[in-house]
Automatic annotation (TrEMBL):
Keyword Magnesium: no
Organism: Actinacidiphila bryophytorum
Bilayer-crossing regions: 30-49, 95-114, 120-138, 150-169, 197-215
Name of the protein in its database record: Uncharacterized membrane protein
UniProt-annotated location(s): Membrane
Region (Disordered): 1-20
Length: 219
């Protein structure tokens, strides 16, 4: 049996931390996560972009457009889409998602077909995820504390970006691409769900606390 075959079939911690010479495969759960996250992120990016075009058209026509995701003064997609923060790089933010999320879906399909990727690929995916999670963290702050409104489609993009970043890190820790002490590695692999749950919980709590003045009037 070849060394690469041993790396593929063995499940002990030593083999998982030694990158295979012919590349590293992804497990089915992680592959499904990339596919689903890519699809949901693409949906959110498409809807936001389409709604932005509709808002611009309504403005040109001298009309007022009420978006279906603008439910109240707090959950108001229109306010977020028309803010300065919605086009940080000189173009609409969701265009980044329209380019990035299909890449995740394509990579996932390759993984389902048995593709194995070199370490530099996984580092690149991690770097892309780091950029994404830093960007959405900045947008979360801007949305909650400066724009004072929340876009549900943006929240969906936040959720899948965080999940993609974290589980790419888990994959890289598992295969030894990100070096951590053995005990930390065991904790990450055993309780991998804790970080995203706490992360989402903190975001939800910040939204709840900041807009409590409104929530308490409708409860």
């Amino acid at each position: 049996m070849t060394t690469s075959a041993l790396d593929e079939t063995r499940t002990d911690g030593e083999s998982e931390q030694r990158p295979a010479a012919d590349g590293i495969a992804a497990g089915k759960p992680f592959t499904w996560l990339l596919l689903i996250s890519g699809a949901l992120g693409l949906l959110a990016s498409f809807v936001i972009t389409d709604d932005k075009f509709r808002l611009l058209q309504a403005k040109l026509d001298g009309k007022t457009l009420h978006l279906s995701c603008s439910l109240n003064p707090v959950i108001s997609c229109g306010d977020v889409m028309q803010s300065d923060q919605a086009h940080v790089f000189g173009f609409q933010n969701p265009i980044i998602g329209l380019a990035a999320f299909p890449v995740l879906m394509t990579l996932a399909m390759g993984m389902f077909a048995g593709a194995r990727y070199k370490p530099w690929f996984w580092y690149g995916l991690q770097a892309g995820g780091l950029f994404g999670v830093c960007f959405v963290s900045w947008l979360q702050y801007q949305t909650i504390y400066n724009i004072n409104a929340v876009c549900l489609w943006c929240c969906l993009a936040w959720v899948v970006t965080i999940a993609t970043f974290w589980y790419t890190a888990v994959h890289n820790i598992k295969h030894g691409l990100i070096k951590v002490p053995a005990k930390a590695r065991a904790l990450v692999l055993e309780f991998h769900w804790v970080v995203p749950v706490l992360w989402y919980g903190v975001i939800a709590m910040l939204i709840l606390v900041h807009f409590w003045y409104y929530w308490k009037t409708v409860i």
